[in-house]
Amino acid sequence: MRQVDPAEFKSWRDAGEAPRILDVREPWEYEVAHLPDSMLIPLGELPARAVDELDPDQPLVVLCHHGVRSLQAAYFLEHQGFADVINLTGGIDRWSQTVDPATPRY
To answer: Which residue(s) pair with 86 in the sheet?
Structure first.
């Protein structure tokens, strides 16, 4: 499983090379803070929605609040045959601390 820290992920985004972003937090968390162009599928809904809503051949960066749920989601997706799944270490909280302080913390 690949992992990426927020600073490196920001450089991918700045270069236009960022994979699709999958946010696996709850809707209320997503409303507080999220990355532009991210797709929300809460972790509990992922098994039912992944096959219909995600392309297994498209690279994905998965994020959550601190990186634990996204790691679970990434492992799940890999076991479902998704080819390129990357966990954002530290989640949106570390993103806010190290990349974009304007992103609300909770």
So the answer is: 2, 61
pTM: 0.96
Which of 4, 46, 64, 86 does the annotation list as catalytic? 64
Active-site residue 8, yes or no? no
List pLDDT tens digits, range 4-54: 999 999 999 999 988 999 999 999 999 999 999 999 999 999 999 999 999
Tokens of 73: 């989601």
In 3D space, the residue among 72, 56, 68 whose CA is nearest the CA of residue 93 turns out to be: 68
Burial class (CB in 10 A: 0-12, 13-18, 19+), 67: buried
- Residue 58 has a CB neighbour count (10 Å cut-off) of 11
Q: Which residues lie below 8 Å from residue 46, measured CB to CB, with a gap of 6+?
A: 24, 73, 76, 77
Return the C-alpha torsion angle 92, 26, 60, 50, nearest 10.
170
Residue found by looking up tokens 């806010």 in the block: 96
Report whether 65 contacts 34 (CB < 8 A).
Answer: no
